[in-house]
Amino acid sequence: MMIIMLTSQYDNHHTCWQEDQTDFASTGSTYRNRAYKRQRCKSMTTTVATAPTQTVQPLTGKVVALLAGLAAISMLSTNIILPAFPAIGEDLGVSARELGLTLSSFFITFALGQLVVGPLADRYGRKKLVLGGLCIFVVGTVIAGLASTLDMLIAGRIIQALGVCAASVLSRAIARDLFEGETLARALSLTMIATAAAPGFSPLLGSLLSATLGWRAIFILVGLAAVALAFFYVQSLGETHPVDRRAPHSTRSVVLAYRKLALDTRFILPAVSMSLLMSGLFASFAAAPAILMKGIGLTSLQTGLYFAATVFVVFAAGMAAPRLAHRHGSRIITLLGIACAMAGGGLLLVGPADPSLGWYALSMVTFLWGMGLANPLGTAIAMQPFGREAGMASALLGFISMGAAALTTWLASVLTFAPVTTLGGIQATACLIAWVLFVLRGSLAK
User: Fold this and answer.
1) Average pLDDT of the residues in 233-243
2) In whole angstroms, what is the distance from residue 369 CA to residue 405 CA?
3) How far is it, in rounded angstroms, from Cα 332 to Cα 263?
4) With left for phi above 0 and alpha for psi between -120 and 50, is residue 297 left, alpha or beta?
5) What is residue 95's DSSP assignment?
6) Which secondary structure element, helix H or strand E, spans residue 296, and what is its range?
7) Closest Cα partner for 138 from 239, 231, 220?
8) 372/370 Cα distance (integer angstroms)
9) Of 312, 232, 225, 282, whose CA–CA distance to 426 is shortest?
10) Lowest mean pLDDT among 125-139, 285-299, 338-352, 358-372
11) What integer pLDDT is reported at residue 58 of this predicted model?
12) CATH number for the domain including 328?
């Protein structure tokens, strides 16, 4: 840092000396002009010495697209293979239940990997972790795409998760590096839209690829998407966590830092609250086949179209969230969003056990609208106080989110109630606890 300051000062003095020489040689110049330029050069030197080192970056469409891509690729790589399970099972000679191991192994690795990526990114910067993670992800994608046995496919999925967890964690950390306050909330809102769009559109895309080109084409597409994302990252943004802001972590300091975050109510209460809210969305993914296909009678293509249609609800809510927060405050809109999502789960509880498509769609639109309002604002509130530890905070948030998602998807699969009742109970309960935690956070902050 000192070398940079001295170099900058030298460049400024050298420029000013050249300007003085020009003035001296010029017959139209005066002593007053030279004195003014010397004073300006002194001001330039002072400014360089005291300037903050934090990266300043406007919220442009390019930055939003990059953050969205980093956040969405993990969801894309997960949900896009679901429609191909019958074809994969037939080709590899395994059952659909056994193929579920490719999802559970991915989620477990993804959750644990985030806890490692966070402190590494705070110590070594974001760029190395993002690019290295995407390279590992491509390797795993190749292995999965060439798999001839279930074990090989699971190994490829584990390697995929090890790589892609870096992109997911660091999308939030990079946003915190670049933005604060309302701009941070807006960036996270737009990123959340992409995160929701990926599981919405990817099943439809996966079914089309599997039907036309075979299931291995899915992994080719995902791998090419990772390569394009890495190139886009290098060309458009690069490192956002400069050396002077990095935190050197030992193993002991990492454990203590995670402990400190877990005990800090400014972080842990909104983090758990938003994780519970998002877990209702993952529960709906687990319950959707039983409700939409077995219960209501939709085909796989119609189910894919249904998921794609729900994306527009999240898109509208994500666009509205920053504007409503600017007018009424982030905390109020977050609480209203959680209450709205809870009402969506309640509609499933009070409705029929075998609902029509219209009733189920109404409940999910209500839930998704509330989730779309609350999640980006609540995430920004959790991340805001922890700029220096943004990587670790994002990693712990991701770990909690995946843990909550694993719990609710497991409950949606094992509970013996009607699928609609199970889903409604999970969503309503999770949102109620999320609402209480967020209210408690606001009370303690006063």
Assistant:
1) 75
2) 19
3) 24
4) left
5) -
6) none
7) 220
8) 5
9) 282
10) 285-299
11) 66
12) 1.20.1250.20
Are residues 9 and 102 both part of a single domain? no
Answer left, alpha or beta for residue 125, where phi above 0 means left and psi between -120 and 50 means alpha.
left
Contact 267, 392 (CB under 8 A): no
> Which residue range forms the structural domain that includes residue 357?
61-445
Question: Where does residue 163 fall: left (phi above 0), alpha (psi -120 to 50 degrees), or beta otherwise?
Answer: alpha
Query: Which pTM value belongs to this model?
Result: 0.69
- N residues, the chain: 446
Asked if 442 and 378 count as a contact pair (C-beta separation under 8 A), the reply is: no
Nearest one of 374, 119, 175 to 270, comparing CA atoms: 374
Residues 28 and 80 in one domain: no
From the number of C-beta atoms within 10 Å of its C-beta (0-12, 13-18, 19+), residue 135 rates as: middle
Q: What is the pLDDT of residue 26?
A: 41
Is the per-residue pLDDT at 2 higher than 60? no
pLDDT of residue 51 exceeding 60, the answer is: no
Whether 20 and 69 map to the same domain: the answer is no
Question: Residue 180: how many CB atoms within 10 A of its CB?
Answer: 14
What pLDDT, on a 0 to 100 scale, did the predictor assign at position 171? 80
- Identify whether the C-beta of residue 249 lies closer than 8 Å to the C-beta of residue 391: no
- Pick the residue with more confidence: 39 or 61? 61
Quick one: average pLDDT of 223-245? 82
- Average pLDDT along the chain: 79
Lowest mean pLDDT among 67-71, 140-144, 274-278, 442-446: 442-446
Q: Judge whether 213 lies within some domain.
A: yes
pLDDT at 139 over 50: yes
> How many domains would you assign to the chain?
2
Asked whether residue 95 falls in the same domain as residue 171, the answer is yes
Q: Tens of pLDDT along 317-351? A: 988 998 899 999 999 999 999 999 999 999 999 99
- Contact in structure between 289 and 415 (CB atoms under 8 Å): no
What's the CA dihedral at 37, 43, 44, 48 to 10 degrees?
170
The alpha-helical segments, DSSP class H, found in 179-215 are 181-212
Under 8 Å between Cβ of 314 and 197: yes
Give dist(CA 429, CA 426) in Å, integer. Answer: 5
HSE (side-chain half, CA atoms, 13 Å) at 181? 2
